[in-house]
């Protein structure tokens, strides 16, 4: 039985009204249209945004361009930019509860988890602030007496930042502070489902001293507000997080003007478990990894690859623990799994489950939506007898659905792990570090966890192999991603001849 936390009615709820931030001004959209975001758990309108059109996107790009070409931000010292980013981190921390509440009401994620994401975001802003002072190029004094080579790192220019709905504040924080640390200016377009916390960030950045036009924030659909900022000739780089399909579209749009593109896309992350693993720790991690953020997570550990000798026992233990997972009201601090983002997305999850059972998989737990009287929820679900070629084993379900596969030999486990289009993350569980390292080195994914799951740190790069993305975020090179490299090749002393006789 699922532990149900029924949503409480929000009797005194008041809808928040937001404008767009363009050139330091909070402004209405050119057409005056709005988007309303309905809470996926509480049936109230959380936020009302101005819906940007291509004309608004154009204004935002023009402001970012002016701020880059003539404004103070790219010309400040690293120390000055760092101080402002640190101030922003302090202000985020001070408004953490407000930001967490907005993300929870708009996305349906549990409030305790949203608060944790704010702590993570504050740490990233501080980390990026530190990197702002350390950005530097190289010099070559080894090219002979007549040559000195200096390699500069210059901010790349205007960056379009596009983010998804599943970690609204955390993901913009994986991009924007690094772009700003490098001296870039930005146009940010959050998901139209969860734009609130990014708009509050706009207020925070103004209060922290980010100059007008350096950060512009527009809200709108992908087609109307997103597409123009991926193709406009005045944009120099795109940093996109979202689905692989829209990532490909973004790259196509960017190709017309050869913009630099950084893509953080989908995942279908294998967890390979050997018989000598600490099974108690794994079962806990598996339950967390499958249902965290209701499975609406690029890193979801949604594909278990268990050694055949332990598969039945492990599935039974995961099913038992899954029954204690608390599903329901995102505002209850004890809730572990909140609401599903939209009714349409819930139907998509159910379609995947039906497709798997039609193809011969068995439902070991859950399998249905959960009626809690308000909002849309899904029961933690375990599918066994899943075959590697099934859609549920290869595609992102983006719901609390675990697919279980099994293996006999190490080569078979690695083959199953790698035989899909994604390569975002994976985990290996064994008490033999030999096993972990040998398997970890052969699995094609950007992050390999060994005897742990979904741990992260601002210092550790994150990103995908194959169709999970292009480039890396976080880590000490994250600021460099937002730079161009310029070579200064200097001649010293008397000139030697090239072709002209002397
Ligand atoms: P999505 O691709 O539908 O939308 C992402 C963003 O792109 C939104 O802001 C959307 O409005 C915008 N967009 C849509 N169409 C566009 C277009 N034609 N041009 C420009 N922008 C457009 O993704 P989603 O449903 O919001 O998020 C879920 C996806 O994000 C999943 O695939 C998930 O794996 C992925 N994701 C990846 C990571 C990572 O770090 N790798 C992290 C979180 C989410």
How is this structure best described in words?
It is built from 15 helices and 27 strands. By secondary structure, it is α/β, with parallel strands linked by helices. The termini are far apart. The longest helix has 22 residues, at 111-132. Bound molecules: nicotinamide-adenine-dinucleotide. The site of nicotinamide-adenine-dinucleotide has 31 residues, from helix 8 and helix 9. Nicotinamide-adenine-dinucleotide binds next to helix 8 and helix 9.
Looking at this protein, list some descriptive labels:
alpha/beta; 6-stranded mixed beta sheet; 7-stranded mixed beta sheet; about 500 residues; 15 helices; binds nicotinamide-adenine-dinucleotide
